[in-house]
Write a structure and sequence with these properties.
Blueprint (H helix, E strand, L loop, with lengths): L4 E3 H4 L1 E6 L13 H20 L3 E7 L12 E11 L3 E12 L4 E14 L11 E3 L3 H29 L6 H4 L10
Parallel strand pairs: 1-7
Antiparallel strand pairs: 2-4, 3-6, 4-5, 5-6
The protein binds coenzyme A.
Length: 183
């Protein structure tokens, strides 16, 4: 039976994984795709715990790798449901990499995954309300609410800009850019 409402702490999830050489590029840094895959897993675990059902990833926002992750570091992904809509959830993920030798922890990125809960019929299904128990929970909920509105309006502006690109004015539009027109 799916609950009517659940606190943020009910579904908070952390996964920690050792960064092995197979995850690294030729420079010894961990591939961004490896981190994204782990983030997707923790987002799923967190969202499905809250929803009480299977969830799918719809969008991923703010993926900026601020610092490289090295082989041998322990990467921890801390996930929380920041916001719920009717059938969607926004999961915030904080990624930290620990160097066990120096006992230092660096924050590599914070990203937001929008997940949608699916029912037995594979259609979006309502999720429990979110119980906000402290100021941090409230702050994150409001932040995600704003983020959702801003992303919606940016998407509209991008669609509008794309439909109004005038290739005939390319030489004027691109005169200060680092490209060469050869057609
Ligand atoms: C996401 C998906 C469930 C939306 O289905 P839909 O029939 O369009 O459903 P709805 O329009 O009713 O939207 C359902 C929810 O998704 C949200 N949503 C849909 N598209 C979205 C987008 N691009 N960004 C953010 N939220 C989105 C809606 O706002 C709605 O949220 P709410 O119920 O909290 O208000 C469907 O497109 C899907 O299954 N996509 C594939 C997801 C997947 O397989 N991911 C794995 C990666 S391959």
């Amino acid at each position: 039976m799916v609950a009517d409402a659940l606190p943020v702490r009910y579904s908070q999830t952390t996964i920690t994984e050792l960064m092995i050489p197979a995850y690294a590029n030729f420079g010894g840094k961990i591939h961004g795709g490896i981190l994204l895959s782990l983030m997707d897993k923790v987002a799923y675990a967190c969202a499905s715990k809250h929803a009480g059902t299977y969830c799918v990833t719809v969008t991923v926002n703010r993926v900026e790798f601020l610092q490289p992750v090295e082989v041998g570091e322990l990467v921890s992904m801390h996930a929380s449901v920041n916001y719920v809509g009717n059938t969607s959830l926004i999961v915030g993920i904080r990624v930290e990499a620990m160097n066990v030798k120096t006992n230092t922890i660096k924050h590599t990125n914070s990203s937001f995954f929008t997940m949608v809960a699916k029912g037995e019929d594979d259609k979006p299904t309502p999720v429990p309300k979110l119980i906000l128990e402290n100021k941090e929970d409230v702050k994150r909920f409001i932040e995600s609410m704003h983020m959702k509105q801003i992303i919606g309006s940016v998407r509209k502006q991008m669609d509008d800009a794309r439909s109004h690109i005038d290739v005939e004015r390319a030489s004027e539009l691109l005169k200060n850019e680092r490209c060469i027109l050869r057609f």
